[in-house]
Amino acid sequence: MNNADPSAVEWDVIREDFPILRQEVRGHPLIYLDSAASSQKPRCVIEALRHYYEYDNANVHRGLHELSSRATDAYEGAREKVARYIGAASAEEIVFTRGTTESINLVANAWGGKFLKAGDVVLLTEMEHHSNIVPWQLLAERTGIKVRYLPVREEGTLELAELDKWLTPEVKIFAFTHISNSLGTINPVQELCRAARKVGAISLVDAAQSAGHLPINVQEIGCDFLAFSGHKMCAPTGIGALYGRRELLTAMPPWHGGGEMISSVTFEGATFKDAPHKFEAGTPNIAGAIGLGAAIDYIEKIGRAEIFAHDEALVAYAIKRMAELPGIRIFGPSGKRGGLVSFMMDSAHPHDVTTFADRYGLALRGGHHCNQPLMRKFRLPGTTRASFYFYNNRAEVDRMIEILKEVQRFFA
Ligand code: C6P
Fold first, then answer.
1. Does ligand 1 lie within 6 Å of residue 34's CB atom?
2. Nearest to residue 206, comparing CAs of 120, 103, 277?
3. What is the pTM assigned to this prediction?
4. By C-alpha distance, which of 213, 193, 395 is closest to 305?
5. Residue 94 Cα, ligand 1 centroid: separation in angstroms?
């Protein structure tokens, strides 16, 4: 992964694949630095959706007609692509969901609801997104399980020296983010999964911020579950996936009930299909899954190692340039990090910085980034965040710096 040469890729040509980036916003060229919230979509993904609706649209797994079998083939083909993309042993280990949030809720309810009992511990970390906190808190209210948090150090990395202390025998699942959406920290997921296994706990990786940015292989990571969202990796909104190890998915009961997930129903009860279909009740997001498949093809053609090297180079450049600004605090680790940077300016509240930047066509994100407990721990009202993807470039970073200088002049 570290051997990738981002200079060998024609990033400016790739940028042309994103029609949305050509527009002006408030009279200025759009600079989109909010890809951690949602990425933009290349033309080939938009085209895949259009093609599906123009030629193949029908429900899956039902009709015995041509369009339905085409839609089914495309939908199941997308599942195969997801499985290959994350190195799953088979497509049966991939459940389509609406995204990371739904994937984690599925695990909390279906796996947690069956296998956790009062007194068991769910270990999270202090840098989790609300999506990997609230489902467990809801489960705790129902079942009496305990939710604990591995601390985050001042510099934005996990307190790994204390890992053994937190991974007690009561811990049944350790669920953590791969890349923090507000700090950019890249967690050592392989090491964390190994540590969980040592105490007999299973592991869940929240890959919302990593799936579209770096190579992932669930078998190498050694995780039991992995969740991600399509919309952060060039695919449409409303589609994502949950990877689950086959034995776990087989042992878990369904979560939602309805059509598509049953083998047989009587007035008294029902039997269910095997995983993954028993977790996909109702008509799924067929077009979304096909769009996700197209996004995977597209990202693989560019190369995830190259994308990560581009992220790293751009964020390093941004941090170097931001150091020129007085009265700016940058959060997150000083070493290796994902392609985003959160900061605070002495002169203005993060919301004001973000609103001001928007006047110049610069899309940043300001607020708590769904990390309220972490913000509270660091006594921050929130941060401003610039997040990068492979269609961003140094000229955009330079323009961001000019606009931030303008912020300082305006709010001085
Ligand atoms: N973070 C951000 O701007 P969904 O909404 O289900 O696609 O993803 C939720 C989620 C889960 N985990 C992490 C680490 C995330 O970053 C996110 C989404 C967005 O940072 C929206 S708050």
1. no
2. 103
3. 0.98
4. 213
5. 20
Instruction: Write down the mean pLDDT value for the chain.
Output: 97
Ligand 1 contact via 213 beta carbon (within 6 Å): no
Pair 40, 48: CB distance under 8 Å: no
Q: Is the CB of 125 under 6 A from ligand 1?
A: no
Answer whether residue 1 shows pLDDT above 50: no
Q: How far is Cα 240 from Cα 231, in angstroms, rounded to an integer?
A: 8
Binned at pLDDT 50, 70 and 90, residue 235 comes out as: very high
Question: Residue 379 corresponds to which tokens in the numbers above?
Answer: 């006594």
| Ligand 1 mutation target, pool 131, 242, 385, most atoms within 8 A of CB | 131
CATH class label, 46-300: alpha beta
The CA 253 to ligand 1 mean position distance, Å, reads 26
| CB environment 123-137: b (16+ within 10 A), e (fewer) | bbbbbbbebbbbbbe
Domain boundaries, the chain: 6-41+303-411, 46-300
Burial class (CB in 10 A: 0-12, 13-18, 19+), 64: exposed
H or E segment at 394?
A: helix 394-411
**Residue 353 CB contacts under 8 Å (≥ 6 apart), including other chains:** 345, 364, 366, 384, 404, 407
Total length of the chain: 412
Q: Dump the DSSP string for 36-62.
A: TT-----HHHHHHHHHIIIII---SSS
For the cut 80, the answer to whether the pLDDT of residue 50 exceeds it is yes
Scan for tokens 């769904």, then name that residue: 370
So what's the architecture of 6-41+303-411 in CATH? Alpha-Beta Complex (3.90)
pLDDT surpasses 80 at 8: yes
Active site annotation includes 223: no
Q: Is it the case that residue 3 has pLDDT exceeding 80? A: no
Query: 257-275: b or e for each residue (b if 16 or more CB lie within 10 Å)?
Result: eeebbbeeeeeeeeebbeb
**Sign of the CA dihedral with 110 first, then 114, 115, and 116 last:** positive
